[in-house]
Specification:
4-stranded antiparallel β-sheet; alpha/beta; 28% strand; 7 helices; transmembrane transporter activity; ATP hydrolysis activity; ATP binding; ABC_transporter-like_ATP-bd; nucleotide-binding; Rossmann fold
Protein backbone atom coordinates (compact mmCIF):
# COMPACT_ATOMS: atom_id res chain seq x y z
CA UNK A 1 0.00 0.00 0.00
CA UNK A 2 2.86 2.36 0.76
CA UNK A 3 3.55 4.76 -2.08
CA UNK A 4 6.28 6.73 -0.39
CA UNK A 5 7.47 7.32 3.14
CA UNK A 6 10.23 9.42 4.62
CA UNK A 7 11.17 12.00 7.15
CA UNK A 8 10.89 14.71 4.49
CA UNK A 9 7.12 14.18 4.23
CA UNK A 10 4.62 15.94 6.51
CA UNK A 11 3.15 13.42 8.90
CA UNK A 12 -0.41 14.31 7.85
CA UNK A 13 -1.48 15.92 4.58
CA UNK A 14 -5.10 16.87 3.90
CA UNK A 15 -5.90 18.00 0.37
CA UNK A 16 -9.17 19.54 -0.90
CA UNK A 17 -11.16 17.47 1.60
CA UNK A 18 -14.93 17.49 1.21
CA UNK A 19 -17.53 15.51 3.16
CA UNK A 20 -21.18 15.62 2.20
CA UNK A 21 -23.92 13.83 4.13
CA UNK A 22 -27.48 13.34 3.03
CA UNK A 23 -30.25 13.48 5.61
CA UNK A 24 -33.28 12.55 3.59
CA UNK A 25 -33.40 15.12 0.82
CA UNK A 26 -31.23 17.56 2.72
CA UNK A 27 -27.54 17.82 1.75
CA UNK A 28 -25.17 18.66 4.62
CA UNK A 29 -21.66 19.79 3.69
CA UNK A 30 -19.63 18.95 6.80
CA UNK A 31 -16.23 19.73 5.23
CA UNK A 32 -15.68 22.27 2.45
CA UNK A 33 -12.28 22.01 0.78
CA UNK A 34 -10.00 21.52 3.78
CA UNK A 35 -6.25 21.85 3.15
CA UNK A 36 -3.67 21.44 5.91
CA UNK A 37 -0.46 19.71 6.96
CA UNK A 38 0.62 18.45 10.39
CA UNK A 39 4.29 17.82 11.11
CA UNK A 40 5.75 15.16 13.41
CA UNK A 41 5.65 16.00 17.09
CA UNK A 42 2.94 18.66 16.88
CA UNK A 43 0.42 19.18 19.68
CA UNK A 44 -2.48 20.54 17.66
CA UNK A 45 -6.09 21.41 18.42
CA UNK A 46 -8.88 21.44 15.85
CA UNK A 47 -11.13 24.03 17.45
CA UNK A 48 -14.59 25.26 16.66
CA UNK A 49 -18.22 25.21 17.73
CA UNK A 50 -20.47 22.19 17.42
CA UNK A 51 -21.13 21.49 13.75
CA UNK A 52 -17.92 23.16 12.56
CA UNK A 53 -16.54 19.90 11.14
CA UNK A 54 -13.74 19.21 13.60
CA UNK A 55 -14.84 15.68 14.58
CA UNK A 56 -15.58 14.83 10.95
CA UNK A 57 -12.07 15.94 10.00
CA UNK A 58 -10.55 13.94 12.85
CA UNK A 59 -12.46 10.85 11.69
CA UNK A 60 -11.07 11.31 8.16
CA UNK A 61 -7.51 11.54 9.46
CA UNK A 62 -8.12 8.45 11.61
CA UNK A 63 -9.46 6.35 8.71
CA UNK A 64 -12.84 6.03 10.44
CA UNK A 65 -14.72 7.67 7.57
CA UNK A 66 -14.08 8.42 3.90
CA UNK A 67 -14.25 11.85 2.25
CA UNK A 68 -16.68 12.61 -0.53
CA UNK A 69 -13.72 14.04 -2.43
CA UNK A 70 -10.11 15.00 -1.76
CA UNK A 71 -7.60 12.89 0.12
CA UNK A 72 -5.72 12.26 3.35
CA UNK A 73 -2.11 11.08 3.37
CA UNK A 74 -0.06 9.93 6.34
CA UNK A 75 3.71 9.90 5.73
CA UNK A 76 2.93 10.02 2.04
CA UNK A 77 0.57 7.04 2.13
CA UNK A 78 -2.92 7.74 0.78
CA UNK A 79 -5.17 6.48 3.59
CA UNK A 80 -8.49 7.85 2.37
CA UNK A 81 -10.48 5.44 0.23
CA UNK A 82 -9.02 2.25 1.73
CA UNK A 83 -11.23 -0.78 2.26
CA UNK A 84 -12.56 -1.39 5.77
CA UNK A 85 -10.03 -4.16 6.28
CA UNK A 86 -7.14 -2.02 5.06
CA UNK A 87 -8.27 0.89 7.22
CA UNK A 88 -8.54 -1.32 10.33
CA UNK A 89 -5.06 -2.72 9.74
CA UNK A 90 -3.63 0.75 9.21
CA UNK A 91 -5.21 2.10 12.38
CA UNK A 92 -3.89 -0.86 14.34
CA UNK A 93 -0.30 -0.11 13.39
CA UNK A 94 -0.24 3.67 13.17
CA UNK A 95 -2.96 5.52 15.08
CA UNK A 96 -4.00 5.70 18.73
CA UNK A 97 -7.43 7.02 19.72
CA UNK A 98 -8.73 8.76 22.85
CA UNK A 99 -12.50 9.22 22.68
CA UNK A 100 -14.86 11.51 24.57
CA UNK A 101 -16.76 8.49 25.92
CA UNK A 102 -13.52 6.60 26.80
CA UNK A 103 -14.66 3.51 24.81
CA UNK A 104 -13.32 1.04 27.35
CA UNK A 105 -14.70 -2.50 27.24
CA UNK A 106 -16.89 -2.82 30.37
CA UNK A 107 -16.15 -6.48 31.14
CA UNK A 108 -12.36 -6.03 30.93
CA UNK A 109 -10.03 -4.67 33.59
CA UNK A 110 -7.97 -1.54 33.08
CA UNK A 111 -4.97 -3.72 32.21
CA UNK A 112 -6.95 -5.86 29.77
CA UNK A 113 -8.33 -2.76 28.08
CA UNK A 114 -4.86 -1.26 27.78
CA UNK A 115 -3.27 -4.39 26.36
CA UNK A 116 -6.09 -5.10 23.89
CA UNK A 117 -4.44 -3.42 20.90
CA UNK A 118 -1.07 -4.97 21.72
CA UNK A 119 -2.69 -8.41 21.79
CA UNK A 120 -4.12 -7.71 18.34
CA UNK A 121 -0.64 -6.70 17.21
CA UNK A 122 0.74 -10.05 18.41
CA UNK A 123 3.01 -8.54 21.08
CA UNK A 124 4.29 -11.05 23.65
CA UNK A 125 3.22 -10.95 27.30
CA UNK A 126 6.71 -9.96 28.42
CA UNK A 127 6.85 -7.06 25.96
CA UNK A 128 3.30 -5.96 26.84
CA UNK A 129 4.42 -5.60 30.46
CA UNK A 130 7.58 -3.76 29.40
CA UNK A 131 5.48 -1.28 27.42
CA UNK A 132 2.45 -0.83 29.67
CA UNK A 133 3.82 -1.06 33.22
CA UNK A 134 5.77 2.22 32.91
CA UNK A 135 2.74 3.93 31.36
CA UNK A 136 0.45 2.84 34.20
CA UNK A 137 3.04 4.21 36.62
CA UNK A 138 3.28 7.42 34.61
CA UNK A 139 -0.48 8.08 34.73
CA UNK A 140 -0.75 7.19 38.41
CA UNK A 141 -2.80 4.00 37.94
CA UNK A 142 -0.30 1.31 38.88
CA UNK A 143 -2.65 0.15 41.65
CA UNK A 144 -5.77 0.21 39.45
CA UNK A 145 -4.84 -2.36 36.80
CA UNK A 146 -7.35 -4.93 38.06
CA UNK A 147 -10.29 -2.56 38.26
CA UNK A 148 -13.06 -2.56 35.69
CA UNK A 149 -14.34 0.70 34.18
CA UNK A 150 -17.35 0.97 36.50
CA UNK A 151 -14.95 0.85 39.46
CA UNK A 152 -13.04 3.92 38.26
CA UNK A 153 -13.81 7.62 37.96
CA UNK A 154 -14.16 9.31 34.59
CA UNK A 155 -10.67 10.76 34.85
CA UNK A 156 -9.19 7.36 35.68
CA UNK A 157 -11.00 5.76 32.74
CA UNK A 158 -9.69 8.45 30.41
CA UNK A 159 -6.15 7.82 31.69
CA UNK A 160 -6.58 4.13 30.87
CA UNK A 161 -7.66 5.23 27.38
CA UNK A 162 -4.46 7.29 27.11
CA UNK A 163 -2.36 4.29 28.17
CA UNK A 164 -4.15 2.14 25.57
CA UNK A 165 -3.55 4.75 22.87
CA UNK A 166 0.14 5.24 23.67
CA UNK A 167 0.81 1.58 24.39
CA UNK A 168 0.25 0.68 20.76
CA UNK A 169 3.28 2.88 19.91
CA UNK A 170 1.38 4.96 17.34
CA UNK A 171 2.75 7.68 15.13
CA UNK A 172 -0.34 9.76 15.87
CA UNK A 173 -2.78 10.04 18.77
CA UNK A 174 -6.18 11.46 17.83
CA UNK A 175 -8.28 12.72 20.73
CA UNK A 176 -11.94 13.60 20.16
CA UNK A 177 -13.17 16.00 22.88
CA UNK A 178 -11.15 14.09 25.52
CA UNK A 179 -12.02 16.49 28.36
CA UNK A 180 -15.75 16.83 27.64
CA UNK A 181 -16.86 14.57 30.50
CA UNK A 182 -14.23 15.61 33.05
CA UNK A 183 -14.11 18.31 35.72
CA UNK A 184 -11.63 21.17 35.37
CA UNK A 185 -8.97 19.78 37.71
CA UNK A 186 -9.05 16.33 36.09
CA UNK A 187 -9.00 17.88 32.61
CA UNK A 188 -5.95 20.00 33.46
CA UNK A 189 -4.11 16.99 34.88
CA UNK A 190 -4.89 14.83 31.84
CA UNK A 191 -3.84 17.54 29.37
CA UNK A 192 -0.60 18.20 31.22
CA UNK A 193 0.12 14.48 31.11
CA UNK A 194 -0.48 14.28 27.35
CA UNK A 195 1.66 17.37 26.74
CA UNK A 196 4.49 15.84 28.77
CA UNK A 197 4.23 12.57 26.86
CA UNK A 198 4.22 14.51 23.59
CA UNK A 199 7.43 16.26 24.62
CA UNK A 200 9.11 13.16 26.06
CA UNK A 201 8.16 10.66 23.35
CA UNK A 202 7.62 12.87 20.31
CA UNK A 203 4.14 11.46 19.70
CA UNK A 204 1.98 13.71 17.52
CA UNK A 205 -1.32 14.68 19.15
CA UNK A 206 -4.31 16.09 17.28
CA UNK A 207 -7.40 17.06 19.31
CA UNK A 208 -10.89 18.07 18.31
CA UNK A 209 -12.21 20.42 20.97
CA UNK A 210 -14.09 23.52 21.96
CA UNK A 211 -12.54 23.41 25.46
CA UNK A 212 -10.48 26.56 26.12
CA UNK A 213 -8.23 24.57 28.45
CA UNK A 214 -7.17 22.34 25.54
CA UNK A 215 -6.81 25.32 23.21
CA UNK A 216 -4.59 27.16 25.69
CA UNK A 217 -2.18 24.21 25.94
CA UNK A 218 -2.04 23.49 22.21
CA UNK A 219 1.03 24.76 20.39
CA UNK A 220 -1.05 25.07 17.22
CA UNK A 221 -4.76 25.80 16.90
CA UNK A 222 -6.58 25.19 13.62
CA UNK A 223 -9.96 26.89 13.84
CA UNK A 224 -12.89 25.57 11.81
CA UNK A 225 -16.26 27.08 11.10
CA UNK A 226 -18.97 25.66 8.82
CA UNK A 227 -16.59 23.05 7.45
CA UNK A 228 -13.78 25.46 6.53
CA UNK A 229 -10.43 26.40 8.08
CA UNK A 230 -10.82 30.01 9.16
CA UNK A 231 -7.57 30.43 11.13
CA UNK A 232 -4.30 28.59 11.75
CA UNK A 233 -2.54 29.88 14.87
CA UNK A 234 0.90 28.79 16.08
CA UNK A 235 2.92 29.65 19.16
Amino acid sequence: MSESRGEDKPLIEVRDLERVYHQGEVEVRALRGINLEVERGEFTALAGPSGSGKTTLLNMIGCLDDPSSGEVRIEGDRVSGMSRTEAAEYRLGHIGFVFQAYNLIPVLTAWENAEFVLLMQGVSKEERHAILDPLFERVGLADYKDRKPHEMSGGQQQRVAVVRALGSRPRIVLADEPTANLDSATSASLLDLMLELNQERGVTFVFSTHDEMVIERARRVIRLDSGRVVADERD
